Known about the structure:
25% of the residues lie in helices and 29% in strands. It is of the alpha/beta class. The protein folds into 2 domains: 2-207, ANL, N-terminal domain (Rossmann fold); 251-327, ANL, C-terminal domain (GMP Synthetase, Chain A, domain 3).
Amino acid sequence: xxxxxxxxxxxxxxxxxxxxxxxxxxxxxxxxxxxxxxxxxxxxxxxxxxxxxxxxxxxxxxxxxxxxxxxxxxxxxxxxxxxxxxxxxxxxxxxxxxxxxxxxxxxxxxxxxxxxxxxxxxxxxxxxxxxxxxxxxxxxxxxxxxxxxxxxxxxxxxxxxxxxxxxxxxxxxxxxxxxxxxxxxxxxxxxxxxxxxxxxxxxxxxxxxxxxxxxxxxxxxxxxxxxxxxxxxxxxxxxxxxxxxxxxxxxxxxxxxxxxxxxxxxxxxxxxxxxxxxxxxxxxxxxxxxxxxxxxxxxxxxxxxxxxxxxxxxxxxxxxxxxxxxxxxxxxxxxxxxxxxxxxx
Length: 345
């Protein structure tokens, strides 16, 4: 079955389910229908199947190719499931630009397969996409960390990148980018360079943006989408650059103060090491809403902070969490993104 897909290299450890999903998507992409089906991640609602026009999918793949200067004969690493849009787009990018596909397991550390596949580990990989928990595992292993740095360009998406990982990426020699996108834009339409301490996202070629009266991102009409009004709060820099501040959906109104949880989370990130956490607004009879801190894992006094400790990281009185709850395990999407909700019993 391997010969059905041109320029494909399958490494050791790739299971049959992964290959069947890949072949099924290739057949769907090359059939005579105008659309492909995609399962959404479920981060902002229940997972659902949506249908995307192939011409728009091609436009997205070409925009990424233009940003990274893809060339025929280069190689991409595929270690994301082709059941979801991120994996599907890796295949489409390779096919459109006549690039070879090195198929890795959809595992926590897919580069272990590269190390164990003999001569394949010496292949030059020009482009790869990972989710953050994969990158964390890769960089913890000295052997795969070295292999990772040999990949020319990497995009990381699907879930937030914690501060510890961002600091680690600053030390690497290859190019690393955080992605920003949504179903309507067919994966990412903007990228943030993780090799510098810079919060700015740059739009891919063909995308222009503006800001509405709420301070939310608006994507102007382009080849992929009609004019798209989002609920993403931003600081607009120019028509192709912005800084993301948080989701308007999650803004907490407490005693008349509007609080963006994501902005506060970035301020306090250094206090949590690798513990997963988030801030969330819950109903409060006195204040309207109260800001609550949820932390994944066992209860620990280490993460119960005093007012003085919150002040030390720059929080004001109204930005400080009113309560802290420890949760055994957060619910997550298929791409390991935490589902934000009230986890109190």
